[in-house]
Design a protein that fits this description.
The chain is built from two helices and 15 strands. It is mainly β. The radius of gyration is 18 Å and the shape is globular. The N and C termini lie close together (about 10 Å).
Length: about 220
């Protein structure tokens, strides 16, 4: 098993021109271009574990997704898409989380069919202890989809009561029934918000990964 973190994507998030055209007079004021600087996506490979899936070689991949907002802003929503390209006919056996709505620490588990599950930390365990024991904490609502396809999608949404953004690092996992080199591309849409006096939302801007003119590709290796 490889435990060395590998940075796959480190790229700026820029204004989505198509979304800007859709803003109407009733919408919040758009955040100015100069105030978007510093908004970035960091996507890293946390680990790749060779596993058996129904008696055949495959892999469990854990990713770390971090959305960095510009100064004095927060992300209220984001959609991350991972489009697997090779090997030919690659598909996702399972992914996690499929749905999680609170910040209770959980551990991602996998069985001999490649099915992923979430085990919650004991109530008496503190967040710090849980993290040390390989538990994950999600700071926003996360919903994932794409099982049996080559397209994984995770939607992140902030808690509407706390209004404290999407948090920092989010751990994502998927199982694949292949070994060797895996390639794909990453797409991201996100909404950046800035609150005014009394936490009243006074400005928003929809962002995309990069400038929309290039693919953000990655390569990972699943060992035998």
């Amino acid at each position: 098993m490889s435990e060395d973190t590998q940075l796959l994507i480190d790229a700026p998030l820029l204004a989505d021109a198509d979304a800007d055209e859709e803003l109407g007079p009733g919408d919040a004021t758009p955040i100015a271009d100069e105030d978007l600087r510093g908004s970035r996506l960091l996507l890293a490979k946390k680990s790749v574990t060779p596993i058996q899936i129904d008696g055949q070689s495959g892999g469990l991949i854990k990713l770390s997704c971090t959305l960095q907002p510009a100064y004095n802003t927060r992300f209220t929503w984001a959609r991350l898409r991972i489009l697997l390209q090779t090997p030919e006919d690659i598909h996702i056996v399972d992914l996690a989380p499929q749905e999680i709505q609170d910040s209770q620490p959980v551990k991602i588990t996998v069985d001999d069919k490649g099915t992923l599950g979430l085990t919650y930390a004991p109530a008496e365990a503190s967040v710090e202890q849980s993290i040390q024991k390989e538990y994950e904490v999600y700071h926003c609502t996360v919903r994932g989809s794409g099982i049996t396809t080559a397209k994984a999608r995770w939607d992140f949404r902030e808690n509407e009561h706390r209004q404290d953004g999407l948090g920092t690092e989010q751990t994502l996992a998927l199982t694949l029934p292949v070994t060797g080199k895996v390639t794909g591309i990453v797409l991201l849409n996100a909404r950046l918000a800035r609150s005014g006096v009394g936490s009243v939302l006074d400005a928003i801007r929809d962002l995309i990964l990069g400038d929309g003119e290039m693919d953000y590709s990655f390569v990972m290796e699943i060992p035998e």
